[in-house]
Design goal:
With 257 residues, the chain is an alpha+beta fold. The chain has one domain (4-240). The chain is 32% helix and 17% strand. The protein has a five-stranded antiparallel beta sheet. It starts with 9 loop residues before the first helix and ends in a 17-residue tail after the last helix.
């Protein structure tokens, strides 16, 4: 279970959810998945829309049980829900908060990831973004390089009612080999901004400290080799100081949206 010390308050990041962030996290951890509304049919793996309830607080969430994961040749069976959760841990550690609150917990169909559902217009996605989203998209490109995202489709970038970018579907991440496949390549080779480098440096310091809450959380979600590869990717970004370049191998997901 994710340590509460990895959680920033909404006030610290000035990026609040509609609901109080700390209350949402508590409900994700302690609340009841009280109603399975239905199966989300656009994904490869079984994904359920559920209600999370704790006392008077109720909200929608996406529940991805381990037993519903399709086996893959290149990712260890039964680990996609852990990778979904680890992506949230890194998003929090960077202070960027692009991944909706996510925890690994028991549910009605067994252990799985449970993530706050972001209300959004499905017709608005990465390929419809404009200049107002440029800073967020550039940070997201760095985030994907850090977590080694093998499946950043345009439809995995959502806009909420406040025109804020959220990133979802992070099951294919944290592989030890280079797997970066994304639709966000327009910044490739450009220098990283000083503010981005400063945030990545802070993340590096957390990853280098075994007692840091971030590393304690990741130790429960990733294996040792994956954690080592994560640190190596972060250090490489800090050395090269540029947005990632495509390759080797396939560098765009299919379909693109």
């Amino acid at each position: 279970m994710i340590n509460r010390d990895t959680i920033h308050t909404a006030e610290e990041l000035d990026k609040p959810l509609t609901l109080n962030y700390a209350d949402v996290l508590e409900a994700l951890v302690k609340g009841t998945l009280c109603q399975e509304i239905g199966l989300m049919r656009w994904g490869t793996n079984y994904t359920f829309l559920v209600n999370v309830q704790l006392d008077a607080l109720t909200f929608l969430a996406i529940y991805k049980p381990r037993v519903g994961e399709r086996p893959l040749w290149d990712f260890t069976d039964g680990t996609l829900c852990q990778r979904e959760t680890a992506a949230w841990v890194i998003s929090e550690a960077l202070g960027w908060r692009y991944v909706p609150p996510t925890v690994l917990r028991e549910g009605p169909r067994g252990i799985g990831s449970v993530q706050v559902f972001v209300e959004h217009d499905p017709q608005r996605h990465y390929f419809t973004f404009d200049e107002a989203h440029l800073e967020q998209v550039k940070q997201l490109a760095v985030f994907d390089a850090i977590i080694n995202n093998a499946d950043r489709k345009g439809g995995h970038c959502l806009l909420d009612c406040d025109n804020r970018v959220w990133a979802i579907d992070h099951g294919l991440t944290f592989h030890t080999m280079n797997k970066l496949r994304t639709v966000i390549w327009e910044f490739a080779g450009q220098p990283l901004e000083a503010t981005v480098l400063a945030d990545v440096q802070k993340l590096c310091e957390k990853l280098d400290s075994p007692e840091d809450p971030t590393m304690k959380a990741l130790a429960e979600l990733l294996d040792h080799a994956e954690a080592q590869a994560l640190r190596a990717r972060v250090r490489r970004l800090l050395r090269q100081k540029v947005y990632p370049m495509p390759g080797p191998g396939p560098n765009r997901p299919w379909p693109a949206v």
